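Recap slide: SWIM-type domain-containing protein, sequence and predicted structure.
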Amino acid sequence: MLNGEEDIMLSFLFDFTATQALDLVDHRCVSHIVSSSGRELYKIQRNATEFHICLKNSNYCTCPSFIFHVLKKEQFMCKHKLAVILSSAMGLCKEVQYADETITLMLVGEQ
């Protein structure tokens, strides 16, 4: 996965967020979702029933850490967005296709 130097660099740049993000990557929690019309986003599974959504081309995440730390510039990004970047770079995202309606429901928190 990562060599020692890369792990140290991530830890230096992102502190404990890197460890948490790598845990999400190791547990294959990140899914790359493509809608039938071509919209793309990432779903990070928290547990069997809870997840967070990260948008593809922005730093946005639906997690509380994004609101309470990233927007206040206390953190550069949340663990979910870092996990998306790492999973994508390592080719470890699950690829999933959903209907546009399903993605809309996910974005408004009804699924």
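Residues 54 and 107 are 10 Å apart (CA to CA).
DSSP finds five helices and four strands in the chain.
(End of recap.)
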